[in-house]
Amino acid sequence: METKQRKVLVGNPTYLQANGLVRYNEEGRPAKSQLVYTIMNFPFRCNLRCLKCYREPAKHQETLDTDTRKRIIRESRDLGAAVLGIPGEGEPFFYFDEIQPVVEYACSQGLITLLYSNGTLFDEERLRFLYDHNVSLIVSCDSLKPDTFRDLTKGDVGRVREGLEMAREVYQPSVRREGETTYTRLGLISIVSEQNMGDIAELSEFTGYDFFHIVNTLVRIGGGEDNWESLIGNHQYTEYMETAKRYTDTFLGGITTPWEDGNCAAFHNGITITTNGDVQICPAVVKKPIGNAKTMSVEEIWGKQQELVKKINFWCIARRPDLEAYLKEFVGF
Ligand SMILES: C[S@@+](CC[C@H](N)C(=O)[O-])C[C@H]1O[C@@H](n2cnc3c(N)ncnc32)[C@H](O)[C@@H]1O
Ligand code: SF4
Q1: How far is CA 208 from CA 48, 187, 201, 213, in A?
Q2: Residue 170 binned pLDDT confidence (cut-offs 50, 70, 90)
Q3: Of 21, 85, 264, 288, which has fewest CB within 10 angstroms of its CB?
Q4: Residue range 304-322, pLDDT digits in tens
Q5: Which residue puts its alpha carbon closest to atom 1 of ligand 2?
Q6: Which residues on neighbouring strands pair with residue 189, listed in sequence order?
Q7: pLDDT tens digits for range 182-195
Q8: pLDDT (tens digit, 9 = 90+) per residue, 86-128?
Q9: Do 263 and 254 meet the contact criterion of CB atoms below 8 Å apart?
């Protein structure tokens, strides 16, 4: 009889724990002192116009040079980092040439890269490059219905479907079963809103056995703030949390990289360096830098991050209610 399979994305906390890439403290929890995720952005360029996009207020053009990016990766690895995250300040396939040497370098240093894309600009050659360089690819898709997809992104879902099938083919050899666990390097991420609440089941079915499905709730920043009323509609936020929880393959609905205790690893055990070198406290909190990587070592950045995480003491800073007021009052910026 077929056993129920649990999917695990290569590069996610569960994978890192299962593969001995995380240090533990005396209580058996992932040690707070280990830098695990180093997250980086590239200049904003995108072919879609998503209503939700939290990048709206932070479209940088000035960018760090490749040597500085390599130095950040090297110093991160020396502190224990296992993953380079490229959540994308825009669409990575729009500026693939800039990403390529960085991904290549991260791979040479033994890091897994988690790369996000909207999936509309895929071609086989570039997908093969990612596959060959230890990249776990996470494709965003909030609906497979053409009209809903267009309403949410101004784009064509047909392009995403083609991209997903192409990625499925290239990444097929990465899918590996071990007992009741299926490891994969392909992810699909959906953000639940009023418009697509009814489409998550279909997306979940589409993910099959090879796409790890991440179902998240909205962050109220940028487009997420400007379009909040339309995206949330008449539902309570908790209803979105419940939908996310029901369908997500992360064991906690709502965020991409949860530890077992519910804390977000990208915030608690990560640093985020945006396009121009500014250091953010998390990938989604795009304003109010806490430093700049051009003048700080990764050790200094990680020290500052740990200080703030301790003070903030919340599972996901980006989803903290009254975020702006909170940052001003308790964190001092
Ligand atoms: C900013 S996008 C950049 C990469 C690529 N363009 C894409 O859409 O996947 C990175 C991730 O942020 C998510 N995202 C954007 N705005 C969001 C919001 N307001 N709340 C939650 N997630 C959001 C997207 O769904 C995507 O998975
Ligand atoms: S969420 Fe991604 S695809 Fe959509 S506008 Fe933002 S950067 Fe572009």
Answers
A1: 26, 11, 12, 9
A2: very high
A3: 288
A4: 999 888 888 777 777 777 7
A5: 53
A6: 140, 214
A7: 999 999 999 999 99
A8: 987 789 998 899 999 999 999 999 999 999 999 999 999 999 9
A9: no
* Angle between helix 200-207 and helix 237-247 axes, rounded to 10 deg: 20
- CA 9 to each of CA 6, 129, 209, 292: distance values in angstroms, whole numbers, following the listed order: 10, 19, 12, 31
Tokens at residue 152, please?
Answer: 């949410």
pLDDT at 40: 95
In the reported structure, the alpha carbon of residue 327 is separated from the centroid of ligand 2 by a whole-number distance in angstroms of: 25
Nearest to 237 by CA among 248, 224, 250, 249: 224
Nearest CA to ligand 1 atom 4: 88
Nearest to 50 by CA among 193, 165, 166, 255: 193
Atom of ligand 2 nearest to the CA of 44: 7
Query: Cα dist. 45→161, 171, 173 in Å?
Result: 22, 26, 31
Residues 6 or more apart whose CB falls under 8 angstroms from that of 259 comprise 13, 29, 30, 265, 268, 269
Q: Note whether 274 and 88 are within 8 A (CB).
A: no
Q: Which two three-digit tokens encode residue 317? A: 């800073």
* Residue to probe by mutation, ligand 1, list 42, 45, 50, most atoms within 8 Å of CB: 50
28 against 248, higher pLDDT: 248
How far apart, in whole angstroms, are the C-alpha atoms of residue 49 and residue 150?
Answer: 10
